[in-house]
Amino acid sequence: MTSTAVRVALRVRPLAQREQLTNCTECLSFIPNEPQILIGTDKSFTYDYVFDPNTPQNDVYKKAAGPLLDKFVDGFNATILAYGQTGSGKTYSMGTGLENPADTENEGIVPRCIIDLFQSLEERAQRSADFKYEVYVSFLELYNEELIDLLNPHTSHKRKNHSSPGHNSMSHNNNNNNIPAAAEVTIREDVAGNIYWSGVKEELCTSPKELLGFLEKGSLCRTTGSTDMNSVSSRSHAVFSVILKQQRPQEEAENHDRSSSPLGATKKLQSLTSKFHFVDLAGSERLKRTNAQGDRAKEGIAINAGLLALGNVISALGDESRRTAHSDPHAGLCVAC
């Protein structure tokens, strides 16, 4: 495949138990050694990567996510978006659910990236005494067009109280005396036209275990619900971000500059900041198939609106004549990634 800023991988999950009980069958076929699938006999689709139902988690990570981690450590920003219908296995592939942390074989992309990241940074630090680094993490949720900081205890506590049927303002205030007030999470645009979010808490991490702890903490605060298509359906879009700040010796651009440098000259140090966003999108759904009602139906409508905004952003980024309306929280969040 030619080099491109965006690559698409297709992963096909095995049939679920419910599907097997209703005698569902596979509708796709795979072309050996080619990133291509067939629907029926006349419709073919080509991607950068194709993973069949028997592909293990490690192979998905090594082929699709591993190269992005290398670029991230080199100082480039990277984003992985998990997109698909509800119940298609997005959270499993990303590894943000943490159903069984002891099962390393079934670890998803995010835990594997975190472990390899710290290993790579430690190796670089051992090779050069001048190499320094810091790793931070943030975890955002976009639920019903509201941005929520999953690592801020005030935000999650406030939402829990508001979602409880018997809460009142007196008990809410008493329970939050020791919790610092949370700044509102907003999406902004700087003078250079770059999109960023403000009011987001970033936690410093010194080990994979500590970073995975924040992933688990935020995942437990995510909004989930049951529908006819998925008993533990994610009802929000989640953005788990790893921020790498590093200081390393700056390489000279040309050999003659290096040879002309006086002996004992001070090494030039280069400061780099890069971000790796792992986005677990809520699944697209049809209300008549999920049989969602009330709040679940409203969530489904908001989810589909967000996915539509994502499509508009991707189209706009590929067309310089179009400009995306960042006032939409879905669109702004996508561009900020």
From TrEMBL:
Q: Which UniProt keywords apply?
A: ATP-binding, Coiled coil, Cytoplasm, Microtubule, Motor protein, Nucleotide-binding
Q: Give me any GO biological process, just one.
A: microtubule-based movement
Compositionally biased region (Low complexity): 163-178
The segment annotated Disordered runs over 155-178, 246-265
Tell me if Cytoplasm is a UniProt keyword of this record. yes
Question: What are the Basic and acidic residues biased-composition ranges?
Answer: 248-259
Q: What is its main location?
A: cytoplasm
Q: What is the top-level taxon of the source organism?
A: Eukaryota
Q: Where in the cell is it found?
A: Cytoplasm
Q: Which InterPro entries match?
A: Kinesin-like_fam, Kinesin_motor_CS, Kinesin_motor_dom, Kinesin_motor_dom_sf, P-loop_NTPase
Q: Where is the Kinesin motor domain?
A: 5-337
Q: Drop me one GO molecular function for this one.
A: microtubule motor activity
Which amino acid positions bind ATP, per UniProt? 84-91
Respond yes or no to whether keyword Nucleotide-binding is given for this record.
Answer: yes
The GO cellular component terms are: cytoplasm; microtubule; microtubule associated complex
Similarity comment text for this entry:
Belongs to the TRAFAC class myosin-kinesin ATPase superfamily. Kinesin family.
> What is the name of this protein?
Kinesin-like protein
Recorded source organism is Phycomyces blakesleeanus (strain ATCC 8743b / DSM 1359 / FGSC 10004 / NBRC 33097 / NRRL 1555)
Q: What is the lineage of its organism?
A: Eukaryota, Fungi, Fungi incertae sedis, Mucoromycota, Mucoromycotina
